Request: fold
Amino acid sequence: MAGSDRPLSPHLQIYRWYFTMALSIAHRFSGVALAVGLLFLAWWLTALARGPEAFAPVEAFVRSGIGSLLLFGWTFALFYHLANGVRHLVWDLGFGLEKDQAFRSGVAALAAAAIATAVVWITVLAL
Reply:
């Protein structure tokens, strides 16, 4: 096998990246981000139930720059995963499967996630 002239299987270096391909990969990453974010949510709820002394470090982390950035990213991942999930449901119904329709629905999913994230954070910061 070491001297075989057979071609290797295709891998990411030879594929041409398409927008819809990147969105599919982003959908998977957003699912992982949501799962990791649930660990933070469990930490937050546990600390909240244990009282003010246990909650203080969690609150300090949330109010820090990195904590706010992670929450912002988690919010975007939540809305992106939701919008892209709806997009996939529409595909399952047999609609929007043409290349141009898939591209437009991908742009719409990204736009919806960005707008929803902005609305949530503007509302939270206004409180």
Remarks:
- The mean pLDDT is 93.
- Residues 19-126 form a domain with the 3 helical TM bundles of succinate and fumarate reductases fold (CATH 1.20.1300.10).
- The longest helix spans residues 19-50.
- The chain is about 80% helix and 0% strand.
